């Protein structure tokens, strides 16, 4: 038969194999925050290293419980510092403002008055009342917001650089402590009994049952948050992470929370009662502040405006964002967070002194920067700043266990801060090889200083 009209099938062409994904592309496709993961890994290395150097004294329930309480004040203020640095500004006054607000709240509890430059305002609460501590918190929060608005207004509307405005506040608010209440800087004590619960102590914590309740609520919140995030991405037809990956992250986070409560909060017995201490109230406050600030930064219009301005101020203003009001509100929010931290520190000491909050501004800025906040603006996360505060306090706590003096501790913190900023700058310049070298040099130098500083 004739082959006319028949069509020969084409020869099978060589199908090129799909391009192999690099490790970086694979990690990026999962949506995992590599900065935060790196911070967790660094924190674990710090803990294991100090535990080895201190003969097993660092990773104990007692030390880690104290570490969690000591990190709260800096962590709370660091959440606000993230938004300020994201807008390409700075606040050097947070330590002095904390001292002034703490002194004012203590004055209300001891004398029941507000007094500045000889002007006395009696609030009629002299003596012990059940509402004294509540009124002190309200006045402290309002005063912190007012001072924040004043500083933010001068920065945003007058045009004075934030460095100068907050440096002036750094000096003025510290000096104002000596002109408050006519006390000439005297120590104010004791404070309200209920107010002292905000400071955290083994005999003033949640206890075992309430600690487990908080842990279960946090785990439930993680599950609900993951489900809502997937629903939002489906609604806007965005790329989803694999379900198994989301489930693994949530399960891992829940296991970490439950293990932390079991080994640290419940594993630490009160030296007073002998019962499990549970979660300290300052840690619960830090948890609530972190959740609220994260929601504000990621889910509310104000947070989007802050990051839009930090990424490109000119484009944000042309896009209709009231940039001046946004900057002013970030400083007002910082003032409220300073009031919360002031309450925690004064409650923990059961007194207010003139040196309250000294050097806190440096620790707060360092915590935000170590946590991944970039001075170039537009980059920074709330959980990263809190984790940075834990890293800072872990360094100081570990060095204290090794009996390293305070000046040497400051040297190490300075090295860590410079290393973090250098790594951030090199990452933005895409100089990955240099990043590893800078990180190794910083770690090695810090280790040498710690080793030579041991008695």
Q: Keywords for this structure?
A:
single chain, two-stranded antiparallel sheet
Number of strands: 2
Report the oligomer: single chain
Radius of gyration: 26 Å
Output the number of helix runs: 17
Distance between the termini: 102 Å
Structural class of the helix and strand makeup? mainly alpha
The profile of the biggest β sheet is: 2 strands, antiparallel
Strand content: under 5%
**In order across it, which strands form the biggest sheet?**
1-2
The helix content is 55-70%
Categorize the overall geometry: globular
Mean pLDDT: 87
Low-confidence stretches: none
Give a quick rundown of the structure.
The protein is mainly α.
């Amino acid at each position: 038969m004739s082959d006319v009209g028949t069509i020969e099938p084409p020869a099978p062409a060589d199908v090129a194999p799909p391009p192999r994904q690099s490790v970086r592309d694979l990690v990026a496709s999962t949506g995992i925050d590599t900065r935060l993961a790196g911070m967790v890994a660094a924190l674990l290395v710090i803990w294991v290293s100090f535990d080895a150097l201190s003969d097993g004294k660092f990773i104990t329930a007692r030390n880690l419980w104290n570490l969690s309480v000591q990190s709260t004040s800096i962590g709370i203020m660091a959440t606000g510092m993230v938004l300020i640095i994201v807008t390409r500004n700075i606040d050097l006054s947070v330590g002095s403002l904390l001292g002034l607000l703490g002194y004012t709240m203590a004055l209300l509890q001891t004398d029941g008055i507000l007094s500045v430059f000889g002007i006395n305002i009696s609030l009629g609460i002299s003596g012990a009342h059940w509402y004294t501590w509540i009124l002190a918190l309200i006045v402290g929060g309002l005063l912190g917001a007012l001072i924040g608005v004043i500083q933010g207004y001068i920065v945003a509307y007058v045009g004075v650089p934030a460095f100068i405005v907050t440096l002036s506040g750094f000096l003025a608010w510290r000096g104002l402590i000596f002109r408050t209440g006519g006390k000439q800087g005297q120590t104010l004590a004791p404070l309200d009994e209920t107010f002292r619960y905000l400071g955290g102590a083994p005999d003033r914590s949640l206890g075992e049952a309430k600690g487990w309740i908080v842990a279960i609520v946090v785990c439930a919140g993680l599950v609900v948050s993951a489900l809502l995030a997937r629903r939002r991405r489906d609604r806007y037809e965005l790329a989803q992470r694999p379900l198994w990956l989301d489930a693994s992250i949530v399960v891992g986070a829940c296991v970490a929370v439950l293990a932390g409560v079991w080994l640290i909060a419940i594993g630490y017995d009160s030296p007073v009662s002998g019962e499990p201490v549970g979660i300290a109230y300052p840690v619960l406050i830090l948890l609530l502040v972190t959740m609220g600030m994260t929601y504000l930064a990621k889910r509310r219009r104000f947070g989007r405006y802050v990051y839009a301005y930090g990424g490109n101020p000119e484009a944000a203003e042309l896009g209709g964002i009231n940039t001046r009001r946004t900057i002013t509100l970030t400083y007002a929010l910082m003032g409220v967070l300073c009031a919360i931290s002031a309450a925690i520190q004064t409650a923990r000491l059961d007194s207010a002194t003139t040196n309250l909050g000294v050097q806190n501004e440096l620790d707060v800025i360092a915590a935000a920067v170590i946590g991944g906040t970039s001075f170039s603006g537009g980059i920074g996360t709330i959980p990263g700043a809190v984790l940075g505060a834990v890293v800072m306090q872990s360094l100081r706590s570990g060095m204290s266990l090794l009996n390293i003096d305070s000046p040497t501790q400051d040297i190490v913190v300075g090295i860590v801060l410079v290393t973090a900023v250098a790594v951030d700058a090199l990452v933005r310049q895409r100089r990955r090889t240099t990043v590893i070298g800078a990180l190794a040099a910083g770690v090695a130098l810090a280790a040498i200083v710690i080793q030579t500083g041991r008695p």
